[in-house]
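It is worth pausing here to work through a concrete case rather than discussing structure prediction in the abstract. The textbook approach is simple: state the sequence, then state the predicted structure, then interpret. We follow exactly that order.
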Amino acid sequence: MLQGTAERLISASDLKRQRGWTETLVTALLGAPDALCPNPHGFRAPMRWFREDRVLDAEAEDVFRRRVGRLGDHAAWRRAQPTRSWAAGELEHLEWLDDPDRIALFHAPRRPRLRRRRPAPAPAPAPPGMRFEVLRLF
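Step two, the predicted structure:
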């Protein structure tokens, strides 16, 4: 086990932004979060918090090392930067989950929304021999 404490927490957004994780990796390697707290940015999904020791253990696995090896230079530099971690007492309204292993996770990867254009309705053909006149009232 690497040097990490169970008292320090790392948010899922910091894992993705600062440590090169993806949502699929977070779900596959870490599973359910250890704690939740309300999102301060309005009515959005609650923030997910993971214990630092669990994150460091998952980063030591081969699956994660192979993923980081595929990162380009534009994203690999973030791994060298320090990652923010928070003590549980620093977070307001933190709710610890009793047994994260029992929580079902449903992860659906994002797909781009496609807008279908409706074809313009074709004008009905006029029967042969009939002519239409446009009446102008004004």
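Step three, interpretation. Residues 48 and 82 are 19 Å apart (CA to CA). The radius of gyration is 27 Å.
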